[in-house]
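A reminder from the course coordinator: this example appears on the midterm review sheet, so study it carefully.

Given structure:
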């Protein structure tokens, strides 16, 4: 459903991504792993045209994304949870969810039920300002904002960053649960072993280039990948 072909991207004059190709098929969980600063966030942002595209093609469900407005991308079922600043802290939980709802075709209450079912801790917090929640709960709000838009493909940038170990496993389980409802996932994750273990396929990035590409299991079992990128 997503096809990135030889993309070059960066910031102004600075090229960070040097010709990366990647694809996500319907129903897959695909992970992008790699060291800090290797360009994982820049690659995800390039899909949403949030960085400068210097070359290559990005095709999503038959449309050229480099020529598609953001609201059209969202209408086509593409949704992005960025690594930072992914909620409005001064708005309540419910107001955060409502912001995502304008493109929804289903009844708002149905969408909210789905999100509260997935993340029960948010129910009693729904009138609280999102900024007062714990890190794990904030991430639930960020997911909720994305899910209320009824995505077909969900882009996640380090969904477990900064979370306590208990929340890391919970959030990754939720990613699998969301995937089982038919949402394809493209995820950047620092917990590379956990991410690859639950992924259909994965990509290893280093210095803005794709170094390895295989099934999640294949990358986990690759000695070179394990030694260089997964801490042995
Ligand atoms: N807004 C920006 N302007 C200029 N350079 C940037 C900007 N954001 C990131 N960079 C640079 O781009 C490179 C890749 O950064 P990016 O955030 O994509 O890496 P990453 O793999 O997501 O790292 P991390 O694991 O720390 O999140 C880094 O050298 C970084 O300094
Ligand atoms: Mg990043």
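Designed residues:
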């Amino acid at each position: 459903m997503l096809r990135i072909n030889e993309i070059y991207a960066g910031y102004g004059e600075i090229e960070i991504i040097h010709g990366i190709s990647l694809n996500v098929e319907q129903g897959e969980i695909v992970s992008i792993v790699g060291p800090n600063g290797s360009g994982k966030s820049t690659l995800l942002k390039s899909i949403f045209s949030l960085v400068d595209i210097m070359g290559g093609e990005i095709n999503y469900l038959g449309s050229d994304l480099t020529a598609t407005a953001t609201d059209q991308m969202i209408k086509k079922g593409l949704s992005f949870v960025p690594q930072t600043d992914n909620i409005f802290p001064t708005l309540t939980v419910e107001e955060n969810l409502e912001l995502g709802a304008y493109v929804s075709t289903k009844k708002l209450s149905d969408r909210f039920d789905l999100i509260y079912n997935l993340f029960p801790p948010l129910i009693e917090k729904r009138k609280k300002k999102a900024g007062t929640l714990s890190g794990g709960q904030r991430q639930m709000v960020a997911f909720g904002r994305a899910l209320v838009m009824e995505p077909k493909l969900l882009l996640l940038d380090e969904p477990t960053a900064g979370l306590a170990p208990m929340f890391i496993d919970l959030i990754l389980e939720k990613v699998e649960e969301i995937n089982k409802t038919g949402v394809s996932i493209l995820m950047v994750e620092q917990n590379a072993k956990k991410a690859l273990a639950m992924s259909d396929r994965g990509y290893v990035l280093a210095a803005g280039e794709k170094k390895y590409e295989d099934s999640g299991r294949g990358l986990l079992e690759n000695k070179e990948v394990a030694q260089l990128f997964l801490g042995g």
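The radius of gyration is 17 Å. The pocket of adenosine-5'-triphosphate (ligand 1) is lined by residues 11, 14, 16, 34, 36-42, 83 (CB under 6 Å).
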